[in-house]
Design brief:
alpha+beta, 78 residues, five-stranded mixed beta sheet, Structural Genomics Hypothetical 15.5 Kd Protein In mrcA-pckA Intergenic Region, Chain A, 7 strands, two-stranded antiparallel ribbon
Length: 78
C-alpha cells in the first residue's frame, strides 16, 4: 500500500480538494466523481459527501493508496 502524508495548515480540507492536492486526480471535479463512485474511504467508512471536511488525524483511502492527514509541521511517527 502506498502511503501519503498530507500536511494540513488550516482547520480542514474538502475531500475532493485533498484528492487533487495529493495528485490522485487532476481536478476538484475529478475528485468529486471519484467520491460519487463510492471508492473513497474516510477512517475505514465509505464517504459519499464530495466536500466532506477532512481534518488532522483522519485517514483517507483510495484503492491501495492511504492518505494520512497531519498538522503542518508535525513529524510523522517513526
Amino acid at each position: 500500500m502506498q502511503k501519503i502524508e498530507f500536511s494540513l495548515n488550516r482547520e480542514f480540507v474538502q475531500l475532493n480538494q485533498l484528492l487533487k492536492l495529493t495528485g490522485l486526480c487532476d481536478s476538484g471535479g475529478a475528485g468529486k466523481a471519484l467520491v460519487a463512485g463510492g471508492t473513497i474511504l474516510v477512517d475505514g467508512n465509505v464517504e459519499l459527501r464530495k466536500t466532506c471536511k477532512i481534518r488532522v488525524g483522519q485517514v483517507v483511502t483510495l484503492g491501495d493508496v492511504e492518505i494520512s492527514v497531519a498538522a503542518a509541521g508535525e513529524m510523522p511517527p517513526g
